[in-house]
Amino acid sequence: MFNAVLRSVARRSLLQSSRGAGLAPTHRYLAARFITDHAKATIDDAIKQNDLVVFMKGTPDEPMCGFSRAVVQVLQMHGVDEIASVNCLQDPEIREGIKEYTDWPTIPQVYVKGEFIGGCDVMVQMHQSGELHELLVKEGILKADVETEESEKK
């Protein structure tokens, strides 16, 4: 945990030094956010317990932002019926913590088999390129199509 915090602070310091060169070094460190133990445990549990999980605003049945809605729609277009999710609007620690956890500034965030895939833009790009379907089949989230299996055997 300490190493992750140290890396996060160091990374932020480098980024902030290029953005806000006028800040004193101690203020740069004070400006860094830290993920709480509660948020980290909740995020870790959700990622470990689900093959696919979306940290989003709202729920898959009632997304509360257009980006979260788009991610849900893309997953549903691929036949993912059961979408595990964490509603980041219910807990401010989770909402800020997930951004710190991945060093990714936006919500929604999608994880497949414990690996951070990306947010809305990444999911849409993967959908358009066909990579998303391949990933979902490879990781066992979706069953391979009979046609796909037959063409791979040839």
TrEMBL record:
Domain Glutaredoxin: 53-117
Domain of life the protein comes from: Eukaryota
Keywords: 2Fe-2S, Iron, Iron-sulfur, Metal-binding, Redox-active center
Pfam families assigned: Glutaredoxin
GO cellular component: mitochondrial matrix
GO process terms (BP): [2Fe-2S] cluster assembly
InterPro entries listed in its UniProt record: Glutaredoxin, GRX_PICOT-like, Monothiol_GRX-rel, Thioredoxin-like_sf
SUPFAM superfamilies noted in UniProt: Thioredoxin-like
This protein's record includes keyword ATP-binding: no
GO molecular function: 2 iron, 2 sulfur cluster binding; disulfide oxidoreductase activity; metal ion binding
CDD domains per the UniProt record, alphabetical: GRX_PICOT_like
PANTHER family: GLUTAREDOXIN FAMILY MEMBER, GLUTAREDOXIN-RELATED PROTEIN 5, MITOCHONDRIAL
NCBIfam families: Grx4 family monothiol glutaredoxin
Name of protein: Monothiol glutaredoxin-5, mitochondrial
The species this protein was found in: Coemansia spiralis
